């Protein structure tokens, strides 16, 4: 039989730790079964964003703009391309807007 030192034995005087997670009824995040995050860009919106981001990206390299304008235009181009690829726009999420329609949703394979 191995005897534990005094400092390793559990003490009854220590408070219980708080629960690791608190579940709220109106939690803002979607449940694990939902798509995370919910897509809010339709197919046309995504196509326009990808096309416009590509054209603007080519123009960024072709034009000789001041450095600060190149920086901000580059940030805008990244936002447009990333949201177009992901199908989700944080700006649309904040404004609670969506361009996604029922025909944009592909049914899961059977």
Characterization of the model:
The chain is mostly helical. The protein has a domain at 37-100. 42% of the residues lie in helices and 0% in strands. The chain contains three helices and no strands. The protein is elongated and about 75 Å long. The chain starts with 42 loop residues before the first helix and ends in a 15-residue tail after the last helix.
Topology:
Layout: H1 43-62, H2 67-86, H3 90-95
Poorly predicted regions are: none
Distance between the termini: 58 Å
Q: What is the count of helical runs? A: 3
Computed over alpha carbons, the radius of gyration is 25 Å
| Mean of all residue-level pLDDT scores | 79
Characteristics:
110 residues, mainly alpha, 0% strand
At a glance:
With 110 residues, the chain is mainly alpha-helical.
């Amino acid at each position: 039989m191995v005897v534990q030192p005094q400092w390793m034995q559990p003490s009854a005087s220590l408070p219980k730790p708080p629960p690791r997670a608190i579940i709220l009824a109106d939690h803002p995040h979607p449940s694990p079964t939902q798509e995370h995050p919910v897509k809010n860009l339709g197919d046309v919106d995504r196509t326009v964003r990808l096309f416009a981001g590509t054209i603007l990206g080519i123009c960024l390299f072709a034009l000789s703009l001041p450095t600060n304008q190149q920086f901000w235009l580059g940030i805008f181009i990244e936002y447009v391309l990333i949201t177009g690829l992901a199908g989700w726009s944080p700006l649309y999420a904040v404004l609670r807007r969506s361009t996604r329609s029922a025909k944009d949703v592909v049914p899961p394979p059977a």
